[in-house]
Amino acid sequence: MRKKIVCILAAALFAVTLPLTADAKAGIRRGTENVPAESVTVTAEMIRTDANKKNGSSETVPWDPEALRGKTFSILGDSISTYRNTSNRRGSRWSNTTIGRGAAWYSDLKPKLGEDETWWMQLSEDLGLRLLVNNSWAGSGFFRPYRRSEGAYKDRCVQLHDNTGINDGAEPDIIFLFLGTNDFAHFPKTLGTGDLDYDDLFPDNGSGKRTWREPKSTLEAAAVTLFRIRERYPLAEVYMAEMLYRADLNAETEPVWRRFNRDLGEVAEHFGAVMVHFPDDVITYDRRELYYQDNRLHPNALGMDVITETVKAAVLEHTAWKTESFYPVSLELDGVLADLGTGRLVREGQPFSVRLTPAEEGKTVSVSVIAGGEDITDRVWSDGVVSIPAVTCDITVTAASA
Question: In angstroms, rounded to a whole number, what is the distance separating the alpha carbons of residues 161 and 167?
Fold first, then answer.
């Protein structure tokens, strides 16, 4: 059984801090027993560093273990997200009846990886999410069929809900897309390039409503996939993972791989989906044996940990259910020291306090406290302490020594 996570992952607006546990092992998900020493210093640290480089951070978001509990999620993926009798079993408790014939890479017949070690089961456990449909198919991609699979832009992308009645016809609250590597590997000539003509790809049907035409490239197929998902599941949050590093890349193909990931990110942005960016320096050619089962593409347990933590960071950064009940407190200080009695991101209705003292002896402190545009200084500032009994909006505390 894996150890609990203990790492700090950066988000675009806030640094997401997860609670430490007694099982903390140098920032990785599992303990050090039987784990190569290199992974202890690489996995979480590189995710953290890479996220900071891409996003920056300022505040700290407290982790609310109940924020996402019970929310449903579905996956549209390739072999990396499969597991026998979950991604290809008809009528299971988390299934959609159309997924029964999909091929699976991972299996209970392969002891190298248990289902509880897959990225999506770990994500479910860590965030309290409930798997609804895993519509993943080994060999599949956005566009062309491969090994009996069909392009995801066709009906697979709209089969992410419960149609069995077992889950009362539930729709996914969150959708994860993990596709593209098979398009890249097997059909490189039809990848397409950026700057899609969306008016041509999604023409007006004459009544003011957009429809879609058959795509001519993988990039267009990715756009159609997201268009159809948005149309069928308008309330769902959508996260699209970029292509995971492939150890068979070479000097000619790696620039194409990087460019296509950038192009996929632009498509995701167009449809309001969150693009999940994997760390640049964790899974590399030199570390392929450490993170891959086949030394090429399919993650082992440590590789799955990298995916889990990266996807989780994106969810905690962007989900509407994560931070909607928290308000930031901004401190603008000039020659003043602040001793916080509470955190600077406060749950709605909870108190906030900070003691303010001049940095130099003999000076005094002038303070202004603005709450939602209203000056509340006289009500909350007394004897060197700002004390707000219940925070219900954004707070700005300005203090200067005089």
Answer: 9
Sign of CA dihedral 84, 85, 89, 93: negative
Report the SS3 class of residue 399.
Answer: strand
User: Taking the CB of residue 200, how many other CB atoms lie within 10 A of it?
Assistant: 9
The predicted pLDDT at position 73 comes to 93
Residue 53 · residue 113 · CB < 8 Å: no
Cβ proximity of 275 and 307 under 8 Å:
no
Q: Which residues pair with 337 in a beta bridge?
A: 357
pTM of the model: 0.68
Which token pair is 240? 């699209």
Asked whether 196 and 264 are in contact (CB, 8 A), the reply is no
Q: Which residues pair with 398 in a beta bridge?
A: 332, 368
Cα separations in angstroms, 76 against 59, 153, 202, 222: 33, 10, 22, 12
Determine the Cα–Cα distance for residues 164 and 116; give it in Å rounded to an integer.
24
Where are the extended beta strands (E) located within 7-97? 8-10, 14-17, 59-61, 72-77
- Those residues with Cβ within 8 angstroms of residue 117's Cβ, 6 or more apart along the chain or in another chain: 2, 301, 304
**pLDDT at residue 94 in the model:** 62
Q: How far apart are CA 46 and CA 40, in angstroms?
A: 11
Q: Which residues contact 165 (CB under 8 A, 6 or more apart)?
A: none
Strands 72-77 and 174-178: parallel
- Closest by CA position to 86, among listed 61, 104, 111: 104
Residues forming a β-bridge with 308: none
User: 203-222 as b/e, with b when 16 or more CB fall inside 10 Å?
Assistant: eeeeeeeeebeebebbbbbb
C-alpha distances in angstroms, 348 versus 53, 62, 65?
Answer: 30, 12, 16
CA count, 13 A, side-chain hemisphere, 78: 26
- pLDDT, tens only, 22-43: 222 223 344 334 444 343 333 3
Q: Which of 91-95, 165-169, 206-210, 310-314 has the highest mean predicted lDDT (pLDDT)?
A: 310-314
Q: Cα separations (Å) of 189 from 13, 183, 303?
A: 38, 9, 29
Q: Which segment of 4-13, 164-173, 178-187 scores lowest on mean pLDDT? A: 4-13
Question: Phi first, then psi: what are they for 210, rounded to 5°?
Answer: -80, 140
